[in-house]
């Protein structure tokens, strides 16, 4: 809506509820708060992106480690299976 006008019968003048200084102060405060919120949002976004990248790197490292260990385990099982088959054949 519109700014309310008040009539002051003592001076017989109409004056506005908000003066230019009020608007300037309000705009300055709003600008400052907006700037702080934007800055906070940018930091939060950067932190989230960093967490995503760290998690991705950690996941890839663990996946590589597990894949390597599984490969070693498959090799060990194949080796011992071969040894058992050799012993069974030697007994027969």
Task: Write a short abstract of this structure.
This protein has one helix at residues 20-91, and strands at residues 5-8, 13-16. By secondary structure, it is mainly alpha-helical. It has one domain (5-91).
Structural notes for this entry:
This protein has 92 residues and is mainly alpha-helical. 78% of the residues lie in helices and 9% in strands. The protein has one domain (5-91). It has a two-stranded antiparallel ribbon.
Question: How do the helices and strands line up, and which of them pair or pack?
Answer:
Blueprint: E1 5-8, E2 13-16, H1 20-91
Antiparallel strand pairs: 1-2
Protein name: Tektin
Pfam family, one: Tektin
Organism: Lymnaea stagnalis (Great pond snail)
Specify Rg, calculated over alpha carbons: 38 Å
What's the shape? Answer: rod-shaped
Mean pLDDT: 90
Strand order of the largest sheet: 1-2
Which structural class fits the helix and strand makeup?
mainly alpha
**Which percent band covers the strand fraction?**
5-15%
The major pleated sheet works out as: 2 strands, antiparallel
Total number of strands: 2
Number of domains: 1
Which residues form runs of ≥5 with pLDDT under 50? none
Q: Write down the secondary-structure element order.
A: EEH
Protein name: Tektin
Subcellular location: Cytoplasm, Cytoskeleton, Cilium axoneme
Organism: Lymnaea stagnalis (Great pond snail)
InterPro entries: Tektin-like, Tektins
